[in-house]
Amino acid sequence: MKIVGHERFKSVYWIEFDNGSKKLATENLAPGVQVYGEKLVKLEGREYRTWDPYRSKLAASILKNIKKVPVESGKLVLYLGAASGTTPSHVSDIVGLEGCVYCVEISPRPFRDLLSVCEKRANMTPILADARHPSNYSVLLEKVDVIYQDIAQPDQTDIFLANGRAFLKEGGYALLVLKARSIDVTKEPWEIFRNEIEKLEKEMELLDAKILDPYEKDHAMLVLRK
Asked: Is 160 left (phi over 0), alpha (psi -120 to 50) or beta?
């Protein structure tokens, strides 16, 4: 077994197992602690966490060969729809202690699990709030380098744009998960994605888009720049 750096994205790794298989991984910022039952692998004095693309749309995007992952060491990230902290914890691994992940979640039940994750990670800040109202948490964070949004609501694009206006630095990047069936169950996903992209391109530049099948049905990941 060996660890190999990802060919394009820093702080992302491949764990190559003896049987020839390989899995994505990040270096664990909280050694010894699992977040969602992922496998922990110790090699050469460091610990890595396997990164499941069926549990994390960011991992799925990497496996779908997305062109850019703007989440990097030292970056400030606003994560909208943090849920119980699965993907935010990997973002935390990547940005490291020089960065910060502001985690916004509206639902109390997953927020309790998120709190547990944040307690073990000094670079994660939990925020219980409705992402539709960014003014309610504006005092808790600064302008950020990256916005990551994964929210299953019909107005998910409007939520994203409101937060982008409020918090994203000029020239900053965004990763936006579009969930077609949460927007309109009567239309084909491709038609929904096209309509939402047209709305987004009035304010931001689209750099890449990937359909996330087979990892997530009827989902797309967009990379945008302000």
From this structure: alpha
